[in-house]
Specification:
The complex is a heterodimer of chains A (about 230) and B (about 375). Chain A is of the alpha/beta class and about 230 residues long. Chain A has a single domain, classed as Vaccinia Virus protein VP39 (Rossmann fold). Chain A is about 40% helix and about 25% strand. Chain A has a 7-stranded mixed beta sheet. In chain A, helix 3 packs across helix 4. The longest helix of chain A has 22 residues. The termini of chain B are far apart. Chain B folds into 3 domains: about 150 residues, Rossmann fold (3-Layer(aba) Sandwich); about 100 residues, no CATH class; about 100 residues, Alpha-Beta Plaits. With about 375 residues, chain B is an alpha/beta fold. In chain B, strand 7 and strand 8 form a beta hairpin. In chain B, the strands form 2 sheets. Chain B has a 5-stranded mixed beta sheet, sandwiched between helices. A 4-stranded antiparallel beta sheet of chain B has the order 6-7-8-9. The chains are: A alpha/beta (about 230), B alpha/beta (about 375).
């Protein structure tokens, strides 16, 4: 069970989402959440933008580390659940936005110390992902951090084959039951670089199919790469 | 017409898509250009269901236009809109990230009318500055619609369920059902595969051709038919083991095809949870300001505008043909005055905001939400 093909099925039932994600990733999702939160929050009062907060699993960790979070999700059901989860912690530290990632261009430039995206970039089309990453670069202060975790296609050929094999039954079940599947990203680090970041760290789990990447805003590639 | 390999491949894929059209087939969201579009060419938005995008591009052949494919999880426009997968969010995302804004000088986009159940035109406009207009129900009417300066004639507003549409849905049901049953049959008696295939296709085609002409409570009648058919199979088997197993497979097939809830495959009714509660669209006439967005998006022409000469005095719309309503909820979602809502027999209401939020969610979330937010009249 090394793929998130069933993740989409879980998204239609937020109440079972967290338990389901843990089961599918053999508990690795917890490590990823922790890794992302640790990378994003280096000191108390860090201003974090979380894109696609889902049920608030990462939001909770960010707040626990002392961050101030702007959490964004397009699903009202997910936001409701996340708000409930954080109700006993420090709800004053989070502002919730029912918005899509494509609307972060409305947020002021250099207004965050960290941008976090956990398991939401793979749910986007390539165009949407490029837009979101470029905007993330704009939103970050100098010295800020981009911390992302997602399902990726393993780099090594052996791992890739094994991953594809293990993934197939899940894809079938997910497709038949929910009519949806996940889309692991081929070159997440490359896309992050293309948006103007310098990749600082990349960790992989589960046959290299889960990645956590930390990056810093660097040279803006978007100015050179005009759309054709 | 010359046959290039790519054209053959494309045709083969389209046939496959039609046979398995009950399943989602996605195509990459983003911007497509048709012909040689300029910055003033029209922008058309649709979902990322492969078959729809193919048909849309074909319908537009010979024109110059931009097509923005929004991420609807590979589900067709109407189902995605009703199920909460093609909403204002996905349209905002597509308009902002597809790059269309850099290619055109205007901010007007045309959506298929059936997206009105999910996409709130006013909200999209507030959030990203694009003005949305609900075009014809069918892509094939687009050239005519564009030629008459984006004016819809009455026939472009209506959902059709003629022989062609019925056969298309029958094929969509018959293909996967017959395959599953033929596969099961092959395990016992390969010789029965053909009769079972024939039975599946005949039944599916028959059900779709007569679906709305079945008198009385439709599903009870069909259920009765399934039981009667199954019993006669058993009687005809006369006790022989081989014949009995054939009868069992045939009965299962009859039951599967005859008792399925086809609400999502026919524009006839709103599904069993609607039937149970007998929800109907109701109108608060006090609130109506004569905007006519309901009239514009209703696929069954349930609303009537007052005659134009009377509109100085009376602007309010009439829910004149509620008997045609299929409870898609598009009128409720679009009304800027919240003048429309669902109401059940007991007078319990589902408020417009609940409809906008939960749509006709496939997991039945809206039905659940209703019980929480009931307002007694």
């Amino acid at each position: 069970m090394s793929s998130l093909a069933l993740m989409r099925l879980l998204e239609s039932a937020p109440d079972r989402y967290d338990a389901g994600m843990r089961a599918i990733t053999l508990g690795r999702v917890t490590h990823l959440h922790a890794a992302v939160a640790r990378a994003a929050v280096t000191r108390p009062e860090t201003r974090v933008l979380e894109i696609g907060c889902g049920t608030g699993a990462v939001t909770e960790r960010l707040v626990a580390l002392g961050a101030r979070v702007t959490a964004l999700d397009q699903s009202p059901e997910m936001l409701e659940r996340a708000e409930r989860r954080l109700a006993d912690a420090r709800p004053d530290r989070v502002s919730w936005l029912e918005r899509t990632a494509s609307e972060i261009d409305a947020l002021p430039e250099a207004s965050f110390d960290a941008v976090v995206a956990s398991f939401c970039l793979s749910d986007m089309s390539a165009g949407e992902r490029a837009f979101t990453l470029r905007q993330a670069a704009r939103l970050l202060c100098p010295g800020g951090t981009l911390a992302v975790a997602d399902e990726v296609i393993p780099e090594q050929i052996g791992e890739r084959l094994l991953h594809a094999l293990l993934r197939l039954p899940q894809v079938l079940i997910g497709w038949l039951l929910a009519g949806a599947t996940s889309h692991p990203i081929r070159d997440l680090a490359g896309e992050i670089r293309a948006a103007g970041f310098v990749v600082e760290q990349e960790e992989r789990w589960l046959l290299g199919s889960l990645a956590a990447i930390t990056a810093a805003p660097g040279v803006r590639a978007e100015e050179e790469e005009k759309p054709k | 017409m010359s046959f290039r390999p790519s054209a053959v491949g494309s045709l083969a894929r389209e046939v496959l898509l039609m046979l398995l059209r009950l399943f989602p087939w996605s195509t990459e969201p983003g911007l497509r250009s048709v012909g040689d579009p300029s910055p003033s060419s029209p922008v058309l938005v649709t979902g990322n269901y492969d078959l729809t995008v193919r048909r849309l591009l074909r319908a537009l052949e010979g024109l110059d236009a931009w097509v923005v494919v929004a991420p609807s999880r590979g589900i067709n426009v109407w189902c995605a809109a009703a199920g909460g997968h093609l909403t204002s969010h996905q349209v905002v995302t597509a308009l902002k990230t597809s790059g269309v804004a850099e290619r055109v000088e205007h901010r007007r986009a045309i959506l298929p009318q059936l997206a009105a159940t999910g996409v709130q035109a006013r909200e999209v406009s507030q959030r990203c500055g694009w003005k949305l207009r609900f075009g014809p129900v069918y892509a094939e009417d687009l050239p005519r619609y564009l030629a008459q300066h984006e004016k819809k004639s009455d026939d472009m507003r209506r959902v059709r369920f003629g022989v062609a549409e019925r056969l298309e849905m029958a094929v969509a049901w018959a293909a996967p059902t017959s395959l599953v049953f033929a596969a099961v049959t092959a395990l016992f008696r390969p010789a029965w595969c053909l009769p079972i295939l024939a039975l599946s296709w005949t039944l599916a085609i028959a059900v779709f051709l007569i679906y709305d002409r079945i008198p009385g409570p439709r599903r009870l009648v069909l259920g009765g038919g399934a039981i009667a058919g199954s019993l006669s199979c058993v009687v005809l088997a006369e006790g022989g083991m081989a014949a009995l197993s054939a009868a069992a497979i045939a009965s299962a097939l009859l039951t599967a095809i005859l008792t399925y809830d086809y609400s999502g495959s026919t524009p006839i009714e709103g599904g069993s949870h609607f039937e149970e509660r007998r929800w109907t669209v109701a109108m608060d006439r006090e609130r109506c300001k004569g905007v006519y967005s309901c009239w514009e998006v209703c696929p069954e022409a349930c609303f009537a505008k007052p005659p134009s000469e009377e509109r100085g005095v009376e602007r309010k719309v009439d829910l004149a043909h509620s008997e045609h309503c299929i409870r898609c909820g598009a009128c409720i979602v679009q009304c800027p005055e919240d003048a429309l809502y669902f109401e059940d027999e007991k007078g319990l209401r589902v408020q417009p905001d609940t409809i906008r939020r939960f749509k006709l969610n496939l997991m039945g979330r809206r039905a659940v939400a209703t019980t929480d937010s009931e307002v007694t009249d």
